[in-house]
Amino acid sequence: xxxxxxxxxxxxxxxxxxxxxxxxxxxxxxxxxxxxxxxxxxxxxxxxxxxxxxxxxxxxxxxxxxxxxxxxxxxxxxxxxxxxxxxxxxxxxxxxxxxxxxxxxxxxxxxxxxxxxxxxxxxxxxxxxxxxxxxxxxxxxxxxxxxxxxxxxxxxxxxxxxxxxxxxxxxxxxxxxxxxxxxxxxxxxxxxxxxxxxxxxxxxxxxxxxxxxxxxxxxxxxxxxxxxxxxxxxxxxxxxxxxxxxxxxxxxxxxxxxxxxxxxxxxxxxxxxxxxxxxxxxxxxxxxxxxxxxxxxxxxxxxxxxxxxxxxxxxxxxxxxxxxxxxxxxxxxxxxxxxxxxxxxxxxxxxxxxxxxxxxxxxxxxxxxxxxxxxxxx
Length: 378
Known about the structure:
Blueprint: E1 2-4, H1 5-8, H2 14-34, H3 41-66, E2 69-85, E3 91-97, E4 104-114, E5 117-128, E6 133-134, E7 146-153, E8 157-165, H4 167-174, H5 186-192, E9 204-212, E10 219-226, E11 240-246, E12 252-261, E13 272-282, E14 287-297, E15 302-315, E16 318-329, E17 335-345, E18 350-361, E19 367-377
Antiparallel strand pairs: 1-2, 2-3, 2-4, 2-19, 4-5, 5-6, 5-7, 7-8, 8-9, 9-10, 10-11, 11-12, 12-13, 13-14, 14-15, 15-16, 16-17, 17-18, 18-19
């Protein structure tokens, strides 16, 4: 849903303002000519009414000329029923929020400052639809998805300050068939939620400064740094990440990203260094995805190689999606995960889905799960 002052008065710009004013004057003059035979109070009443109408028209035009900003309200609501079993654990069935995509709502706005420069902001909050609670989990921040304000220029790119999404997370979701699914994407689960073999530092960083370049022949550069504001041992040792993405008008897309997280000795959370390569190619009948990454747990001296391969095949009103991922650790148990699903499109905003997953951790009984759900964008 968009709340845009320009929608109130579609006539905009100085040229349109002049045309509208001249049109209103022409209408008034013509009506006065056609009613010139009327005498007395009746003519005065008509003139007074026409004056009010003209004033209202000019007011709307003036509003349109000054309308240079827009605010949007948007989000995603994901609900499903199903069952989940962690490797070595027991099955838990029930109603879940955010299995295919984490549910969230957001507010964003832009203001045209002239000369190709604009101001922008984003406030985005996760929520759990099954309980009505805020956040991905108890204690999660109100606007943990994004909380930033910045400037953007069509020739120089954009810079945002606050809590921003990392280039590594964006690259990971772009180059796997299940996108940003924490419930079913092997890539997302392996990089961000599988213990000591995964990266540290969350998918978004507090106290960050993020830069994104304009499109340069299909290439885009992104970089994020955090300021070291907390005392030693509190989890903010200063992080940085840089990524280069290619996504021209052709069928090939690719990325390379490196991320360094310094937790500064906060509890048992280690420092990590991560490098990832990602690519996709649209063959027409199917789109293929490929990822390879290396996560170095520098605190515990553990290296993890993460490989992912996936495919999306359009079928009828939806698509079949499949993704396989493997984690190979230098120390500890290896893991491999396979997810398969069908996404059925009902409209541009709404789809139904059915997904199953097998999750295997060496030395444990197999885990996995299934979900039948609906994902709605607004």
